[in-house]
Amino acid sequence: MSTAVPPTIVPPSADPVRRRRARPGSTLWRYLVVRFFLIFPTVFILVTMVFFLMRITGDPLTVALGGKLPPDQLAERIHAAGYDRPITVQYLEFLGQVFTGNFGKSITDGQSISTLLISHGTATLELAFYALIVAFIVGIPLGMVAAYFRDRWPDAVLRVFAILAYATPVFFAGLLLKLVFSVWLKVLPVAGRASTRTEINLHSLHHSTGIYLIDAFQTGDPANVADVLSHAVLPGLALGLLTAGIFLRLVRTNVIGTLSRDYVDAARSRGVNEFRLVRKHALKPALIPIITVIGLQIAVLLGGAVLTETTFEWKGLGFELAYYLSKRDFVAVQGIVALLAVIVALTNFIVDIVAALIDPRVRY
Amino acid sequence: MVTSIPTVAPRGTTWWRKLPVVHQLRQSVGLQRGMLVTGLVITGFFIVVALFAAVIAPYGFNELRNAEGLFGSQQPPSAQHLLGTTAGGYDVLSRVIWGTQTAFEVIIVALLLSFFVGVFLGLVSGYIGGWLDRVLIVIADAVYAFPSLLLAIVAAIVISGGQSSLWGGVFAAAISITAVFIPQYFRVIRAETIRIKAEPYVESAKVIGASNGRIMFRHVLRNATRTLPLIVTLNSSEAILTLAGLGFLGFGIEPTSAAEWGYDLNKSVSDVTSGIWWTSVFPGLAIVLVVLGVTLVGESLNDLADPRLRTRRKADVAPSTTAESSVVPDGSLDEVAHIDELET
């Protein structure tokens, strides 16, 4: 076939042009596809690791109920739940569960884990969203300020702030905020996602999303919105400040790098004012490395969410995780961790795609 | 410079000047030196506290009573209990001091373990390459992307089955944290190994018939460890935070076997709601200060290692302005002296 087409038919001048036009699009698509399929090994490895690590300690029933039930009853329940089958069979079954999203029931209280993941996942999502807003609002402008005043006192103060934000465990930051604003000043609620009255209002909605802020707007009652927001302030701040410190440092380092570039000097010599110089000329190119690092921050944020939720009794995945951990209910733990692994893999994928769209140099 | 020093001294001075932290301390100036010194002072203070915990602490970490009877629970700070007592009836000050010891024990064990395992895997993976390398890097990446606290929790479950008395709390906690760090050492050492593998001296070693083991551990490893002091300092602060996080979630060390800040904070959550502040503030501050100290050291080392971030002496602080004002930068003499110091 190919020999039938003589190469002289294509004019030599048109060839390079066409190739140049065709290439960027096709490599981007190839990158997207390859990157998409890389999600699966990541999730697969994490889920496999979690499964086998959890089983090293024995079957979940013995761990959860050992000593609480007589041995013959325990053996019966192990048999009924299928934990006496070969480990490979159980593993395949677990993979099937991950794939279909149906994780069975928890051991200690018999709740459906999938329902639990959905109802509590939205709470964690909401918290992560608040925290990210705080982190962006605080971290990025302060990072620019620190970079601009490099090695002078504002930089010193801001860097110490960034290190303090990192050095303070989220739960300690949460406890301090609680102590000051809820206990001493009594201006904000101590814990929870909403007061009982508001929760009843929200749950009576027909199309409840599980994201309290959206639900509160749906009720149309400003009191509900205010209540939900006032509950969100402290957890959002505690978790957000941790991330803000990381953002500040990232922005600072990268803006310092771009501020010394020739085009910044050129813009300055054209009379561009200093504020615009930092905001437009230095920050924009510095944002590309920042976006890629945010992907890793999502993992930090989720780890922090576990601790923040426990501090504020915010009924999300982290709160449930801590609860089931204390009950030694490893079936539930396994489900929550598997879901978090999927979330991490997905966010990393999205971040990589965004980075590839912004910066044409990011390709395999 | 060298000639003016008596015959005995030179070896001594050159020896300590080359030590990782000392070298950077001499290299640093201004704000960076301030940060490094502050970090070293704070870290040094806590190391001393950890070493002499038995002497400094007024009571044992698991003491509930003295000659006059029980301490009582949730007592506010007083002359007998400078920082008050916890809900469980322990002396807060003593537990904070003993907690320092636990923290440093865990850091040391965790870092040593992850260091050896991570460096070994990185070296083998980078040097041998092939499918082993591919598999290891995919696993390391997956593990690295995962929230470190969750990983530590899973590891803690594996090691102690969730019961903290099984292995000895310190070891269990340290190994859990190790799981988080191995991928980091692995990546760094692997990247360096791949770079060094292509160096002419490795090829020469192959030509003269050195064994793979010898090349790996003698020629490659020695040259691949440049960046490690930096990662070690940055990791030790992360180790403290992970330990505290584990403790806060109830995977810490039981109060009868050792004092642990995260555990104490966990027990103080309900105290905070009723306005009792001393049980949470002091262990929390201890965590913040230790992490602050270690991070300041790590950050400064990091900046000093990165030429883009290193503050130069006078001459280079603002290159554009000095270039305008004079042909010979006024800091040039300093710069020469600086180079001189580095060479001796």
Short description:
Chain A is built from 14 helices and no strands. Chain A has 364 residues and is mainly α. Chain A has a domain at 113-326: MetI-like fold.
How many distinct beta strands of chain B? Answer: 2
How many DSSP H or I helices of chain A? 14
Please tell me the overall pLDDT of chain A. Answer: 77
CATH level-3 fold name of the domain at 113-326 in chain A: MetI-like fold
CATH top level class name of the domain at 113-326 in chain A: Mainly Alpha
Largest sheet of chain B, in brief, is: 2 strands, antiparallel
**pLDDT < 50 stretches of chain B:** 1-11, 315-344
% residues in beta strands of chain A: under 5%
Q: What is the succession of H and E elements of chain B?
A: HHHHEEHHHHHHHHHHH
Distance between the termini of chain A: 32 Å
**Quaternary structure:** heterodimer
Task: Describe the structure in your own words.
The complex is a heterodimer of chains A (364) and B (344). In chain A, helix 7 crosses helix 12 and helix 9 packs across helix 10. Helix content of chain A is 77%, strand content 0%. Chain A has 14 helices and no strands. With 364 residues, chain A is mainly alpha-helical. Chain A has a domain at 113-326: MetI-like (MetI-like fold). Chain A starts with 13 loop residues before the first helix and ends in a 6-residue tail after the last helix. The longest helix of chain A has 43 residues, at 14-56. In chain B, strand 1 (65-66) and strand 2 form a beta hairpin. The longest helix of chain B has 37 residues, at 92-128. Chain B has one domain: MetI-like (MetI-like fold, Orthogonal Bundle), CATH 1.10.3720. Chain B has 344 residues and is mostly helical. In chain B, strands 1-2 form a two-stranded antiparallel sheet. In chain B, helix 5 packs parallel to helix 8, helix 7 packs across helix 8 (169-197) and helix 9 (200-207) runs antiparallel to helix 10 (212-224). At the A-B interface, helix 1, helix 6, helix 7, helix 10 and helix 12 of A face helix 3, helix 6, helix 7, helix 11 and helix 12 of B.
